[in-house]
Amino acid sequence: MSGSTAKQQTNNAWAEGYADFVIKYRWPLMMILLVVTILAALQIKNLDMRNDPDTLLPPSNRYVATNLYAEHNFGMGNLMVFTLRINEGDVYKNWFVNKVQEIHNRLVDLPTARESNFIDVAAKKIKYMGADENGLVFKRLIPTEGISSDPEKAAQQLAFLKEGIENNPVIGPMLIGFEDAEGNKCEFSQKDEKNCTAKSLYIIGDYTDEVKEIYLPWVREIRAMMDEYSEDDRFEVLVAGEPYFLAWMLADLVNKWWLFVISFAIVIAALWFEFRNWRGSLFPIIGVSATIILTLGLMGFSAFKLTTMMVLTPMLLLAIGIGHSVQVTRRFMQEQAKSGDCESAARSAISHTIVPATLSIVTDMVGFATLATVDISFYKAYAYFGMFGMLTLLFTTTTLIPLLMMTFPCSHRETKEGHEHEWETKVGSFISGLLTGPGKLIPIGIVMAIMAWSVYETDILNGTSEDLMPGVEKGINYSRAAFKEKSITIQHIERLNEIMPGVISVSIPIRGKEPTSELCVETYFPEEIYDIEDPQEKLAQCEKAKQELNCWDPDPCGAQGIFNEADVLADIEALEEWMRSHEHIGFTGSYAQYIRLVNMLLTAEPGEQPDIKDLYIPTSKKLREIDPDDDRGGDDIVQLYNGLLETMTEEGDMDSFVMKNWNEGVVMGFINTMDPVETHNVTMDIQQYIEDHKNDPGFSKVNFGLRSGPVDDLSGDTNELSVDGSGYVRPGLGGFLGATEATREVAVDNWLSGPLLTAAAVFVIAALIFRSLVVSVILMVLLFITLFAQYGLGGYMTSIQNWSGNLAFHLQVALSIAMGLGIDYGIYMMSRLKEEMQATAGNWQEALVNTLNTTGSAVIISVVVLLGCFIPLLNTDLANTWGLGIYISQALLIDVVTALTILPMLVAWLKPRFVFGEYKN
User: Fold this and answer.
1) Domain end: 743, 762, 783, which one?
2) What is the pTM of this model?
3) Same domain, 260 and 247
4) Is the residue at 148 inside a domain?
């Protein structure tokens, strides 16, 4: 046996004292651990798994706050799309329309459905809008009992449906899809010019936030409906939308439970290959399983809201725990082969491994702890539960495994075996020979190639102070970040994007700068106000009376609220026209569109077909342009139209666009791209339009979105002029586009600062632990090699537009975790080199060979096991876990190369006193 086992003493009184203590009280300690593990297992059923962007990101973020404000006040925040595309002919067939109505009714019957916000031909809020000699006409598009089976009656009903959809430019684009003869999408406004055919009908459902609490049963009902209706070969079924999307991520993870069984099988196989006995295969699994159960139990007990990405936590604990288990199990068996005594072997194994295990686990915990500095809920979850899990590994692996092996003694044959394999000796001799000769240029060349590749992919040479690595895209494509490209979910989204105006929502909340007042009940404004003809003078007197009486009299002064002012609606109209002309915005909707439609309908003479040229907001200026002698006031007409709409519609029909106080509303739109660069540009373009027009006659009276959050505090939201240095912040947007931009902001804030904070913390911890700045610097060199390679991988994913793997916020968590993992190997190698230098009386060559034969080979086994643990992450349909698996796997491969080659070379060159001690000179 080599000098590595020549000494039983570690020269560390703390380690030896700890080993004596746990061996003396092994039975009480094992029983306590067993009881606590059982209690934790009982809490696992309380795990709260959900995918909710609103809880992932910081509520103070302006986009998150705006999104929550829009959802709470107008709904339409949990939209799901169910689209039916007919294969032959057009959609105006009784069986097809009835099928849409049937699906509508089933979707409405699902728990948490917000029926008043559903948009489809069967929805009660979607009506035929026309006019006759008596005024406006509002009717349901189809009868509540569906299209009749009588051919003559069905023809009349379908004709009415067709007229109601195709003559309504306000809501028609969200009800129906047109295609030309080649099957290409036709814009709603060009359907007649291109002789297009109506091929698709959409069902847009809205669900309350409570759907997030029942994702699994809810989405299983949706999938059952998809499967059922997909069997009908007369039409194509396509499904997408945020709640379905996020819920199916959770369901896919649950459905692939068997992949985790495969992962455990791989770990057991690797352990059997290494130790060739049941104890070496079973006890590490028992120890790591205890850590996983304890951590999952804490998750359930704390009721912390978790995402599907938290599946990485038990997998990391399995992977890291097995790494520590291999080290301590090997040490126990080596010592047992030497002495033949289980208790002595357990004492030696614990005392020799507890210090490096503690050091490596502390650095792992630091890597997790830095994640808690980022205000993202699943980062904090990784931090809290990751640190707890890492801490338990000291007891469930480094301590428990030797105690179990001591309690269940091995056979006489196993006692005589050191469990060293021929390949381990060969690997150690090969690497040591490589490092002491010209072969050292090979690992150096590998590292240089990795660095050069990373420089190219990150484009760091063209970096600026605003973006150090422009080649690394930090934005997110939510669909590709959630699901792999080949999954049915992505295929449906891409197909829907070809049919519908867009599949990503955007909302722009608009609030009046001036709050509305209570209506006068007992006291009223002076009668002389009625006689004032000058609008400006009348407004001034109304404001004066309001201040005196602290109420508002609508009879002489008109209705309150910005949505009763024609100039505001006209500016909204202009905003929507600009948005609809944008290449990446497919459709918009707002209350202004209803006013335009009413104006078109009522401007036409009774019996005449409405003219599209009358689809406008009737401002005073617009009326004078059409007829200089028209002395009507635009506000008066708008308020008349508002009254008509309020009378003719049902309760809740307009709530998704304007609030009952007429002072708050929202502009909705749908974005036809999911590319992270393009979605960011759309956001910037919308904000720039608002910036350019916020002092227009109407928009000067409103605030857009939110700027600071949270939703319950709007006092800081103003709309003052943007002046350099004034601290002005452009307003946030809502909808899925807002959530997308929020993730970009968080990613840009943390993509570099987070890992650098981890590096700084690890540097300080390592320097204190090893009492050596040189050792700390060596570990930092290895860490930065791995980190820069991670950025290089992000740049590569960006260059090939693999949005499942670009370095968006959900994958940046891998950076700190990978850095913590990489330090583990360095710490074990550094500690073993010191031990071997003492055992060989300063013979560096022998110490290096012994270290590589023992700890080095254990590192290789650990990496193989670690990579095997990520098989579930790489083989589900979930792209986010796939991305994490790819990043961490790349880091592990680089870590093993640098720990076994670069670290020994740096130690030999720099000769840190921690390793060389008295032999340094």
Assistant:
1) 743
2) 0.84
3) no
4) yes
